[in-house]
Structures are given as C-alpha cells and as structure tokens.
Automatic annotation (TrEMBL):
Residues 2-102 form the FAD-binding FR-type domain. InterPro entries: FAD-bd_FR_type, FNR_nucleotide-bd, OxRdtase_FAD/NAD-bd, Riboflavin_synthase-like_b-brl. The lineage of its organism: Bacteria, Pseudomonadati, Myxococcota, Myxococcia, Myxococcales. Pfam families: NAD_binding_1 (PF00175). One of its GO terms (molecular function) is oxidoreductase activity. It comes from Myxococcus fulvus. Gene3D superfamilies: Nucleotide-binding domain of ferredoxin-NADP reductase (FNR) module, Translation factors. It comes from the Bacteria. This is NAD(P)H-flavin reductase. PANTHER family: F9L1.8 PROTEIN (PTHR47215:SF1), PTHR47215.
Amino acid sequence: MPDWHPATVTARTPAADGLTDLVLDIQGTPLVGTHAHPGQYVRMSLPGLQPGIFAIASPPEAQGLRWEFLLKDGSPLPDALIRLPLGARVQVSAPEGKGFPVERARGHDVLLFATGSGISAIRPVIATVRRDRALFGRVKLYFGARTPGAFAYQGELHTWEEGGVQVVRTVSQPGASGWQGLTGYVQTHLGEEAVADARAFVCGQPGMSKGVIEALRERGVPREHIFFNY
C-alpha cells in the first residue's frame, strides 16, 4: 500500500458534461515537489471506498502547493470526491508512473492525442511545451469527446492555440446537438501532413490508444516515438 498524506479540497468546479475540476492543497505535506513529470498520477482514498488512480492535471512545479485533477462521474470514489465540501481532507499518495518524456520531443513536431478525461494527463504536457515553445516544432492536439458538451478545459483551448498549439476537436456521438465540427475518432483526422518524424503523446481508452498507434505506424511513426503515461 502507498504512504498516504492528507490534502485539502480548495476548489471544485464543473469542467464539462460529466467532468469536474478538483483542486487539492498539499502544502505542509511531503508531497510538495514530488510531481516531476507531466502525465504522472496519484492514488486517492476516502474512508470506506476503494482507492482510485487519477492523473495530475496541472504541470509539475518544484514548489507547487496545489494539484489539479479532472474527475469523471459515475463511479463511487469520484462521485464521493465531487460531493466533498471545501476544506475536506483527502488521502493522497505520492506521484507514480514515469509520465511523458517531453524532453525527447525537443527539435521535433509534437502530436498530442486525448479523449474524454484523458485530456487531464495531456494538459500538463501542453503547459510544459508552451513554457519552452521554441524548442519544439509544430504542436497539434487531437482532442476527442463523446458529445460537444464533454470537452473539458474549453476556456483554455484558445489560450493553447495562441501559445502555438493547434487544436483539432472531434465528436464521436454528436446526435441531434447541431455540432458542425469534425466527427469520428481522433486518429481519423491526421490529414496529409508529414508526421513520420513527430513524437506522439497519447492518453485515452485502450481502444483509442490502439487505433492511434495503428494510424501513426501506417504513417511512418516508429512505435518507440509514441508515448503513454504508464
């Protein structure tokens, strides 16, 4: 079992349909400074519930005191976390996983793929790339959601684009929403651009990840240039 540390709920806001942004304060705990790589995740625990794994949605900061998370409702632990009042305590582990090796993409184009709540692990990659934007080539995010209302961080998309990240959004189940944008899976929208020398960072359901790998391999991207955060 991991070592648990108490963190405090300081903010909780709706992020999209079925998604909630949760902010935890970790000051005064050994967790400060332990988030080293974009894409790392932690375990959270509440009394009487099975612990769960959640990607840290904020970028690594050497002395950062707040961690952000994107919670998907519909499961016992996330639903309980969403209902917590501000000031409540949550047991949190130190960050785990190797995260994304963003430094290995320097000098290359960067392709980012995320669906649904998987954007939480890609968001810190975007922040890291934007801090040193000149070190990377073209940066393109392929962001998929089930419905038009299920895109988290909609308020940040324009900021990302202003910071040199092209955003391609696609909806898999537009229904009668009136959505006028792209539809289908993220990997179907690679277009005709040359991608063979790009570095790709992917977070989503297993089926999506498999589809992205296959599409990129067909376009000449070696498997060792496609990265996951586990």
